[in-house]
Design brief:
Helix 3 packs antiparallel against helix 4 and helix 5 packs parallel to helix 8. The chain is mainly alpha-helical and about 240 residues long. The protein has one domain. Pfam families: MotA_ExbB. This is Outer membrane transport energization protein ExbB. Belongs to the exbB/tolQ family. One of its GO terms (cellular component) is plasma membrane.
Amino acid sequence: MNSSGLPPFLADMFAPILELARTGGPVVVLLGALSVITLALALAKLIQFHAAGTGRHVNARKVLRVWISGERETAMQHVGGERSVLGDVLVHLVRGASNGRGTEAQLREDIERVCLNKLAHLRSFLRPLDMIAQTAPLIGLFGTVLGMIQAFQSMQGAGANVDPSVLAGGIWVALLTTAVGLAVAIPTSVFVGWCDGRIEREQQAMEDLVTAFFTGKPTEAAPVGVVDLASHGRRHAH
């Protein structure tokens, strides 16, 4: 154990991080906290996607083909056999069509509600991640501006006895916060884009599934009035 109270291997591991925080000051500490929050939210998103079954479309499409072929009893026996977003949508469609309650228009309205709720759930946690990706560079730039102000104040106080090495040291410390801000923002932005891509693929799969269910044949795009998911904002849910 050392003065920090950590085992030697942990102290060696965290020493560069602590030194970076001491050098960069409160702004780097804030950006470090944002990076921890980002990591936690990203892990939560990965767990959520896995639990929801995003990307698992094979079983739902097989059951849909069985339903369209007219073997509805067989389809009802196998629907919901695999946990997935698309499978849950198909379960609602099959059950709604099988119990015969309500009109086709009502079923379409209900399945649109189900799809929108599914998409809203998949978009959860993306808004804070997007905010971190946008604000981290600005926070880093703010730290750089503060550092430059301090560096030039020191230069002014030194008068004619300005040491260029001291000024250069102040400037690189100021630029450090911008570098840390970008280091937080870039991977966060990439991850948000990856999540958006997966959600868009799920949305397209839902539209194709719903259209095929009502028309009785697969199609690449949902006609107007079946389920207009694209018109509902691709806004991130809180």
